[in-house]
Amino acid sequence: MAVDDFSLDVADGEFVCIVGPSGCGKSTVLRMMAGLETISSGSIDISPGNVPGKPLNSVVFQEYAIFPWKTVIENVAFGLEMRGISLNIRVDAAKYWLDRVGLTKFSHHYPHQLSGGMKQRVSIIRAIVNDPEVLLMDEPLGALDAQTRVLLQEELLRIWGETKKTVIYITHSLDECVLLGDRVVLMSAQPGRILATYDINLERPRSIETMNSPRFTEYRAEIWENLRDEVVRSMDMQT
Amino acid sequence: MTRLCVQWTCRHKGEQGHSHKYLEIDMSKLYFSANQEDRIFYSLLMTFLMVQFVLVFLGLWSLWAWPSIAVGFLLFVMGCERVGRAVPFHLHNRYEKSLAFGFPVLLLITWEIAGNTGLINPLWFPQPSRIAISLWDLSVNFDRFSGTSLLGRPWLVGDYYRKDGFTGVYALLTESHLLATLSRVLTGFCLGAIPGILLGVVMGINRTVRLMLDTTLSAIYVLPKIAIFPIVMLMFSDPFGEGPKIVVVALSVFILMTINTMVGVRNIDPVYLMAGKNYGASRLQMMRHVILPGSMPVIFAGLRIALGTAMIVIISVEFLRAKQGVGFMTFYYWEVLVPEKMYAGLVVVMILGVLLTVVLEWFQRRVMPWKL
């Protein structure tokens, strides 16, 4: 069994981070929410909004998963194209968001011509352009180097501030979950279950400077205390 | 002092221009000293030349010709190696090109001389010049006996058109060996590749069909396609006509493309399938936007292999049963023992293969612009 006893309510417009040791089933939970993995028991409901045709969820995958055979702008507009939205509207929407993340110049490039950070920007705005009820992010910054990561964390904060989307964000970085989340859910090692949840009461808008505040460090230390035992336990299980 | 100079160019994302970086390695410190190497090389070269001189003087050179050529070749490689190290950086491109094209030319010249001096028997190794001449002969002459020519005499197209219109031109073109082979290969290739790709995609995405057909296809795959030819001939009312030849080519291409496309579809990174599904692609959209482009690299790799197979099959079929075609022509000159024309036939096959590969590569660039 990958996941056991997992129950979570997420409010509209909330940013929930799920953190846990590697191999605890975080990604499995997210894929279940996205409907990409079958659930043996239990249910996952996302209540649809008032706008008909709006997708329930869109995933930002860890491995980018932007199509190498489509140009950047085609990738960004992919979700809209699948929903049959007319060319003009989807190109405009894609162009708006490409401009917001500074990739206008690269609209007609292919992904292999982009750096890792740019690819993940494309992947993130592909999900945002799709305008889903819930944005599901599966360690989106996991494959990036430390500096690019910090840049993209700031960008994520900015974008979230504008859109106020409901986000479920999987990560194994404590800094990231405290910096981004309204709530942090700590998961245990296999089988994955919820160990604790923490409300992060740091005022918004946040930025990288927030990481220097004493409250931030306190939250981090508190979560780490519980997480450390789990990490040790999961390492023991692997050996 | 010999220096090895390594240069590389960095192009940074989003920046104009590039920066050059150099790394210099003092070869003499890595290796035994350059002077020592110099001495070894020159002493070997001098010894070799002296031995040759003595052999010629004693009239024994022809007896020792092959060992001499082998040692000479070794020394030549060493010499080129040294020249390569001394070549200044900006001439490097030219040096590499001259090696890549110069050496084959050198081989041809050696072949020519060896043939003229009787070192090799010109009966089965006719000199390149004779091959070239016979290729020219074949191109310009019309074989009255079999009513064929290699190219179909394109310079007469105007005359024939004025005389008989398009039927005249058609009659002229049908006498061509090259066009006969080309049309068989192309028709067979398309007739095999398109259904092959379609079936391969179906087998890639549908488990049931895959399980049902995979064993059969693998069994047929290892069968030499030429072995099917007699059976195919049996099926056609005109066993010596174009039908069986095209079908054999098509069959071999079909099997190859089915297996290749299936592998291509199966090897698509599952994350792309998940992305497609998550962003709401229907079955048809999935096919058009994810599965077909995702398997394209493997499909094209398969097409290239299939092209080679098609050439093998068509030439062997023409050896067996044909009144026309480059394979027939080559075999015909075996029967009447004109070796240089057999070689000319091989040259034509090579040129045809290279041309078709170039066309396929051009097509690939058109269809898959996302590849480097």
Mean pLDDT of chain A: 85
Q: Give me the side-by-side strand order of the main sheet of chain B.
A: 1-2
Give the terminus-to-terminus CA distance of chain A: 19 Å
| SS-derived structural category of chain A | alpha/beta
Helix content bin of chain A: 40-55%
CATH hierarchy: architecture of one domain in chain B: Orthogonal Bundle
- DSSP summary: helix tally of chain A: 8
- List how many beta strands of chain B DSSP finds: 2
Neighbour order of strands in the largest sheet of chain A:
2-3-4-1-5-6
Rg calc of chain A: 18 Å
Helix content of chain B: over 70%
Please state the overall shape of chain B, judged from the principal axes of the Cα atoms: globular
CATH class of the largest domain in chain A: Alpha Beta
At the fold tier of CATH, the topology name of the largest domain in chain A is Rossmann fold
Strand content of chain A: 5-15%
- Helix and strand content put the structural class of chain B at mainly alpha
Largest chain interface and its two residue counts?
A: A-B, 31 and 24 residues
Dominant shape of chain A: globular
Q: Give me the strand/helix succession of chain A.
A: EHEHHHHEHEHEEH
What's the helix-strand series of chain B? EEHHHHHHHHHHHHHHH
Ordered list of secondary-structure elements with their pairings:
The complex is a heterodimer of chains A (about 240) and B (about 375).
Chain A: E1 15-19, H1 26-33, E2 57-60, H2 72-76, H3 78-82, H4 87-100, H5 116-129, E3 134-138, H6 146-163, E4 166-171, H7 174-180, E5 183-187, E6 194-199, H8 214-238
Parallel strand pairs in A: 1-4, 1-5, 2-3, 3-4
Antiparallel strand pairs in A: 5-6
Helix pairs in contact in A: 4-5, 7-8
Chain B: E1 3-10, E2 19-26, H1 27-30, H2 34-58, H3 65-86, H4 92-116, H5 128-140, H6 157-164, H7 166-174, H8 177-205, H9 207-221, H10 229-235, H11 242-266, H12 270-278, H13 283-320, H14 326-335, H15 339-367
Antiparallel strand pairs in B: 1-2
